[in-house]
């Protein structure tokens, strides 16, 4: 469990104060994967630096389990940092060290005996699918393989939390999926808590159980994936289940409705139901159906012709658990 409470970080630039984090509070249960998504300048890097104690927060606390990290003395800092394994955008491996030696590095720092290092590193390399690459140098590895080495190295000191900072931003789509699947698999096998900082919604869609939207140093929306998707009008909902922003130029007269629904309804014949029940010709303008957070979701934009019994149709949809918002046609 990682708990961040009212974290603030204010930088001074001469006379000016820059508020990089403005009271961030979040709680990630043990064994779950939480995504923090935000645009450039939102405060993601500052949050990473404060979580890993590379930077002291101006105020607020960071705790892993019941151990508060933000108040440890400088002498205890190195030890406290071991409870968070870091995965970076670029694996940042030592080019002159083999795969084995790169993963062994944090264990050498802690004075682990050689025999124990050998057992641990071989286990970790097998865990990330690199058992056959122990003697390879970084120059002989693909980008995805390097990232696997970085992940194995992050796990070497048995951290409670894996903090992944833009872990796939430098990878192609296929390798991205493989690395994300590996992170999910490691969570399943090790029960580790994972925090993923990213600007890519696809990362959140693929592996996260919950998500926070960071904007100007504040968390402006958060929740379990299934919960935020189902929030009509929410920014995360729009980003997770997007519809084309531009409407067709020549629309027939009528009323445009956006429908958001989940679970059983996502597979239900909603359109044919209202067509039959209210004797209207429904025009589907756009649609998106996805499986998110373990549930099925659908987002549809439809056009009801002039003369439709709009209040009755809306009431019927709402009664069936479908969120309806009217759009200007
Ligand atoms: N050392 C610093 N001194 C002064 N201001 C800083 C410092 N580091 C970050 N900032 C400011 O804090 C705000 C948040 O920056 P941060 O780098 O955390 O955002 P980010 O979401 O990581 O952006 P990016 O994705 O572009 O890296 C920005 O306004 C930035 O200019």
UniProtKB/TrEMBL annotation:
Biological processes annotated in GO: amino acid transport
Protein name as it appears in the record: D-methionine transport system ATP-binding protein
PROSITE patterns to which the protein is assigned, alphabetical: ABC_TRANSPORTER_1, ABC_TRANSPORTER_2
Top-level taxon of the source organism: Bacteria
Gene Ontology molecular functions: ATP binding; ATP hydrolysis activity
Lineage: Bacteria, Bacillati, Actinomycetota, Actinomycetes, Micrococcales
Domain spans labelled ABC transporter: 2-241
UniProt keyword Metal-binding, yes or no: no
Cellular component annotations (GO), alphabetically ordered: plasma membrane
UniProt-listed PANTHER family: AMINO ACID IMPORT ATP-BINDING PROTEIN, METHIONINE IMPORT ATP-BINDING PROTEIN METN
Translocase found in the keyword field: yes
One Pfam family cited in the UniProt record for this chain: NIL
Protein's job: Part of the ABC transporter FtsEX involved in cellular division. Has ATPase activity.
